[in-house]
């Protein structure tokens, strides 16, 4: 289980939330280096559930678009479906 589960986060336009569950996979960037792609289920303080796609680079959340190969995206989404994140 990820150490990020239960972590509180702040989401623009939604406010405070917490990470309820996530799946992740380490990917190799086209330009070199690695990043950790994630699909997270987050819940706001008022109980609304959202799914967040993103990535971590060097252990830090990267607040940028996530671009990845289709095959890897399918694998990540299948793992999220299997885990019940959607």
Write the layout of secondary structure elements.
Layout: E1 8-11, E2 15-28, E3 34-44, E4 49-57, E5 60-62, H1 70-83
Antiparallel strand pairs: 1-2, 2-3, 3-4, 4-5
What count of helical segments does DSSP give? 1
Rg over CA atoms, rounded to whole Å, is: 13 Å
What's the count of strands? 5
**Count of domains:** 1
Gross morphology is globular
User: What share of residues is helical?
Assistant: 10-25%
Relative strand content? over 45%
Pairing-aware structural class of the strands and helices? alpha+beta
Largest sheet: 5 strands, antiparallel
Note poorly predicted spans: none
Q: What's the pLDDT, averaged over the residues?
A: 91
Could you give the distance between the termini?
A: 18 Å
Strand arrangement within the widest β-sheet reads 1-2-3-4-5
| Order of H and E elements | EEEEEH
What is the gist of this entry?
The chain has 86 residues and is α+β, with helices and mostly antiparallel strands. It has one domain.
